[in-house]
Amino acid sequence: MANTILVRANADGETTVVQALIRHPMDSGFIKDKDGKLIPPHYIEVLEFAHNGTVVLTAFWGPAVSKDPFIKFSFKGGKKGDTLSISWVDNEGMKDSRTAAIM
Amino acid sequence: MTETASDNLADFLPRRRQMLAGTLAGSLAALFGAGPAQADDVVLADPKAYPTAAFAQKTEADALKAMFGRTATVSPKISLDAPDIAENGAVVPIAVKTDLPDVTAIAILALDNPFTISAAYRIPPGTAAAVSSRIKLAKTTTVLAVVEAGGQLYSASRSVKVTLGGCGG
Q1: For residue B61, what are the contacts with CB-CB under 8 A and spacing of at least 6?
Q2: Measured between CA atoms, how close is A13 to chain B, in angstroms?
Q3: Which of residues 49-108 of B touch A (CB under 8 A)?
Q4: Of A33, A66, B8, B57, which is least packed with CB atoms within 10 Å of its CB?
């Protein structure tokens, strides 16, 4: 699968600000396709961020999170070059993960 | 990629046309400083942790009971930032932050959506009690930010008027 995760993490010495964008349809299950058939729900359920192997945020998402979801948060610590890992799994068992260096 | 995706990407990539046209992977690695995958450092999202029952609830009371096992009291220490009027219910930016100490979780509820809970975040120690994201609103609704702090549950609410619903139908 092409990489679905865009992430940018910037450390200012005290805190690290993380912004991430995931490419995912986040189908709600309430929208019909052009033939009038309901598109089944398809959405990310769990998204996890870890800094050097320690979880810094766990997101639980329902189908009401927007398509191609965006999230921004921050945590204490983190310095340039540290590893941030991002991983998600959706309701159909599809998943993706990547690591990025904090800038 | 759809229009929405491109618009979202624009936040990240001012030169998105050029970026998308170019070698995407290489450009992104350069932009975001992504190194090669280091399997040891990856903490994988655990689908078993997902609170399925809570996300299936259709009222505030049921949702909070399923997610947190208690009811929330209104707190002025929670800041819920959302537009007064959302022209497009499919993408409504919501930002929650709080000064409450010992925050362990933040949840976002849209009371008139088909399912009440939109998103919930587990906040470990060291992570700021502030999360921004974007949700879909089916129609004009009260949006509720719920914060679990020190074993108690607090909330703040705000009405968002939706001119074009985000759930289709």
Answers
A1: B71
A2: 14
A3: 49-51, 55, 90-92
A4: A33
Query: Measured on CA atoms in the order A93, A99, B1, B4, is the torsion positive or negative?
Result: positive
The CATH number linked to A11 is 2.60.40.10
Positive or negative: CA dihedral A61, A63, A69, A72: negative
* Chain B residues whose beta carbon lies within 8 Å of the beta carbon of residue A63: 115
The 8-class DSSP code of residue A89 comes to E
> Closest-CA residue in chain A for B31?
A8
Overall domain count for chain A: 1
B43 DSSP assignment: -
Tell whether B109 is within 8 A of chain A (Cβ). Answer: no
Q: Could you give the ipTM of this predicted complex?
A: 0.95
Which residue's entry shows tokens 């089916």? B138
pLDDT tens for each residue of B14-41:
444 444 444 444 444 444 444 444 455 6
CA distance B32 to A18: 11
